[in-house]
Structures are given as structure tokens and as C-alpha cells.
Amino acid sequence: MVYDWFNRQSETAPTQPPADPEASSPESQQETAVNADDDPLEWARQAYARLKAQKEQANAIAAEPVPESIPEAESESQPESAAEPEPAAAEQAPVAGLSLLEQAAAQRQERQQQLEQEPEVADQPIADATVEVDRDEEPTLGDFDDTFTWSAEVLAAQGRQAGQVTLEEIDWLSRLRQGLEKTRQGFVTGLLENLGDDPLTPEVLDDLESLLLRADAGVKATDQVLDALRKRMNEQVVDPSEGIRFLKEQLRDLLEAPIKSSGVDLLAPQRGQLNVWLMVGVNGVGKTTTLGKLANLAVRSGYSAMIAAADTFRAAAVQQVQVWGDRSDVPVVANPSANADPAAVVFDAIGAARSKGTDLVLVDTAGRLQTKHNLMEELNKIRRVVDRLAPDATVESLLVLDASQGQNGLKQAMAFARAAGLTGVVITKLDGTARGGVALAVASEAGLPIRFIGAGEGIRDLRPFNSFEFVEALLAGR
Ligand SMILES: Nc1nc2c(ncn2[C@@H]2O[C@H](COP(=O)(O)OP(=O)(O)O)[C@@H](O)[C@H]2O)c(=O)[nH]1
Ligand SMILES: [Mg+2]
Q: How far does the centroid of ligand 2 lie from the alpha carbon of residue 312, in Å?
């Protein structure tokens, strides 16, 4: 089944026996389509049953999709999930790059253990055990648990029918929610402590202000949200649930503003023409990883892709990119000689892409900070090559930002990247940081649309940005 992430639609779902909106299914499957507003749990249950049936159909023999359900205790969610290879192993042969995956899994587990040792506020049960640790490149269906129902609700709220819910989306939403865990802990717990059953008070708003600032949302975004809330509060009494609804709306509007003004809601490679996407940003923020994930996303979504290894500065960069290319069967164009000219690599890649009719060329660039000036020259040169060789191509210049560096990273990157003709931002490493609010700072301070977000080191831990889903994940539990 192909799920086109760039257009958020499934290519095969409609051809499957649909969960008939007219509810004309035979008695064996009492699929009376339920309205998600009336009965969200039943809606989620139907979506789950359907996914399960699809899965069983797909692997008629092997699929025992769900291990017995796991007790809800939050401390168990992570280690459990790390040791949960069964459904994965049953479905998919091991892939190249497994050792990288294992490393990533180990690192993640280690980090998780560190997190668990920190004093934590037990604000809600964390039922994210369904998110397996990227052993597998195919999503698997976990338990029918809190994470599933939350994900289903988020999809329902966007107008999806129970029969249209895909495993791809459920899988990503669980990852996103889990990735935002740390940011959410401070945020939601803080909010819960301050919000009783009483209407909003100025004190609650003051606390919200510090919560936003602590999550690294930046002064501008924080002021904007607070001003809107204060104004609203002066007009009428705002009870807590209305306060939350209004807050979510404000956060969404803020994130959406640059997306709206770009005129492109969802960045996708244009079919039938060459698309060139450059990854730019300082060292270590996750450019290469992002590019590897994007190559996979493109292929999964039905595009042909190619990688240009134009980080010719770091010795191991080409091998790193090659591993990512192999994982998705995406060709990598590189120049093996030391310190090759990055622009020449891009030149070769565009030539190859043209002759093969490739949809998307992903360009990895070097990001060393010390040689800012040279780097700018280098980027400009790459850009000139692209413009000259492929004047008809759609070019995106994506600034990659590490969320764990918060606003510092943003300022640094903006200074460095001003001349790079940026068209959008990718935020990486949302997992394991409490600074997820930096997305708000990106939108308000850089005025750039966020195009993708990364919440883990695995190949499926990066997806197109969706402000609704982001805000819901940020405030899940409220
Ligand atoms: N936890 C986490 N790590 C990430 C993410 N994206 C990248 N990384 C890690 O960040 C490190 C640097 O990534 P790399 O792609 O080499 O950065 P580059 O120097 O900008 O190309 C690697 O260890 C990646 O695995 C993410 O979304 N979450
Ligand atoms: Mg790199």
C-alpha cells in the first residue's frame, strides 16, 4: 500500500471495501459508521478493527499484530518497546544498515533511561508502548490503547472517516506525540496545575507566559499568544476548556502564518518536473539524517529520488549518505576525490537526474561553522549551478534546525543562512528536548514555513509538518 505523505492520501485505500458511509455492510461486520463527535471511542475502535483486518489480510500467515496488552504504568513503556521486535521480524526481512538502526535504538533507550531517572511529573499515563524502536521500516499496528485513540481522534478532528485512517498516519502521530513528550511534560503539567475549574485569571496567563518562554517559544510568539488571550479574557469570562481551545487556535495560527503566506500548504515535489531540495544548516543539526529520511519518504510516497553528496568537506559524509541511500534504494551521486567541488557534484547529479527523469534531487551540503564565509560562497555556487542547469526546476532551500538548541540555534542559523535564499525550515531532534516550543519561534521570528519535523533517528521519524497535529501533540491530555 502506498501512502503519499506529500499529499496526505492513500492510493489504495479507496479501492479496498470501504467502510461504507451509508452503513450498508453485511451483518457479519456491524460497521455502522459512527460519527467521531458522537462516539470517539467507537470511531477509533472501528478504525482499529479495519487496520487490523487490512494487516491480517496483507500477511495472512505471519501477522500476530499485537502482543498481549501492556499494563499502563508509564515506566514500562520504553524498555518494553525496545524489546518488541516480534511483529516487525515477522513482516519484513532485515534491511541494510541494521547496525545503524541498532545503534540508534540503543542510544534512544539509553536516553530514555536517563530521562526516566530524572524526577518526573506523572501527569498522565504514557501509553506509547506501541512505538517500536525503528527496527522495522514498515509501520506495525500496536495495541488499541490510549496512543491509538488519541491519534485516531486527531485524524477524526481533521475530517477523516474511520475507514480512511491509515497505519502510516497512526504510526507517525504516535511518534510525534512521543517525541514531544518532554516539551509537553512541562507544558501540560504546568497548565493543569494552574487551571482549575475556574475561569482564566491573569495569574494563570502569567504562568502560561513563563511556560511558553521555558519551552523556547520566544518572546515574540509568547507575547502574541498572551495578548490574544488577555484580549479575549477582557471581553468575556473564559472557562478552562474554552481557554485551552483558544490557546490551541492561537498556536496554530502562529505556526500557520508563514505557511499561508508562502501559498503552499503542504510542500511536495512537483510531478512531471525536476525538484531540487537543498539541506542547509550548521554542523550536526541533522541535515544528512533529514535527507536520508526525506529520500525514504519520497520513495514511499511514489516519487523517484536521487541524493547529491555535496558535503565534500567531512571525510565520512559520503559514506553516511550512501548508507541512507542504500536503505531506500535511492542512487547517490558523489565525487570520491578528497575535497571535491560540491558544485561539481550537484552538476553531475542534475545531469543524471535529467537523463533518468528523476523527480527529486536531495542535496546534502556541508555545514561547518568556522568557515562561514566560505560556506556561504559554496552555497551560492551550488545555487548558481542549479539555476543555470535546471532553470525550470523547483528549488527549495531548507534550513535544518536542531530543536534541542532552541532559540540559540535559530539565531545562529538565521545569521548564517540569510543569503541562502531559504524557503523553509526542517526542525529536527524534537525528541528528548523540552524546547519543542522553538517551532513557534521559528514561525514568528524567522517568518519561515516549517516544512518537516523530525522526532527521532529512525527512518520514519520525519514527516511533513502539520500545525494541527503539532499543537495537539504538544498539548495532548488537554
Ligand atoms: N534524536 C534525534 N537525533 C537526530 C535527529 N535527526 C538527526 N539526529 C542525529 O543527529 C546527529 C547529527 O546528524 P547529521 O545528519 O549527521 O547532521 P549534519 O551534520 O547536519 O548532517 C546524528 O547522530 C543523528 O542521528 C532527530 O530527529 N532526533
Ligand atoms: Mg551531514
A: 10
Q: Where is the domain boundary, 214, 236, 262?
A: 262
Residue 161 to residue 14: CA distance in whole angstroms: 12
Q: How many Å lie between the centroid of ligand 1 and the Cα of residue 283?
A: 10
Q: Which residues pair with 215 in a beta bridge?
A: none
Give a yes or no: residue 438 inside a domain.
yes
Query: Given the CA of residue 107, which atom of ligand 1 is nearest to it?
Result: 1
291 CA closest ligand 1 atom index:
15
CA of 368 to the centre of ligand 2 (A): 10
| pLDDT score for 368 | 65
Same domain, yes or no: 161 and 135: yes
Residue 268 lies in a domain: no
Same domain, 309 and 388: yes
Write out the three cell numbers for 131: 512505538
The three three-digit cell numbers of residue 414, written as one number = 538565521
pLDDT at 13: 45
Are the CB atoms for 152 and 163 separated by under 8 Å?
A: no
What CATH number is associated with residue 279?
3.40.50.300
pLDDT for the residue 412:
74
- Do 54 and 191 share a structural domain? no
Same domain (yes/no): 120, 174: yes
Say if residues 326 and 318 touch (Cβ distance below 8 Å).
Answer: no
Q: In the numeric block, which cell numbers belong to residue 228?
A: 490574544
* Domain-embedded: residue 410: yes
CA–centroid distance, residue 286 to ligand 2 (Å): 7
Is residue 473 situated within a structural domain? no
pLDDT mean values, one per 10 residues, the chain (478 residues): 78 44 42 76 92 85 52 42 37 40 52 44 34 55 92 93 91 93 85 79 91 93 95 91 93 97 95 94 92 96 95 85 95 86 93 96 82 74 91 94 90 70 93 92 93 95 96 88
pLDDT of residue 122: 33
- Taking residue 91's Cβ as centre, other Cβ atoms within 10 Å add up to 18
Do 293 and 431 belong together in one domain?
yes
Domain of 30? 3-65+74-178
Atom 10 of ligand 1, residue of closest alpha carbon: 286
Candidate of 457, 459, 460, 465 to mutate for ligand 1, largest count of ligand atoms within 8 Å of Cβ: 457
Residue type, 467: S
412 alpha carbon – ligand 2 mean position (Å):
17
Cα R_g (the chain), whole angstroms: 23
Residue 21: per-residue pLDDT: 42
250/125 same-domain check: no
Ligand 1 proximal residues by C-beta, below 6 Å: 281, 283-289, 367, 428-429, 431-432, 454-457, 461
User: Is 338 in the same domain as 233?
Assistant: no
| Nearest-atom index, ligand 1, CA of 283 | 19
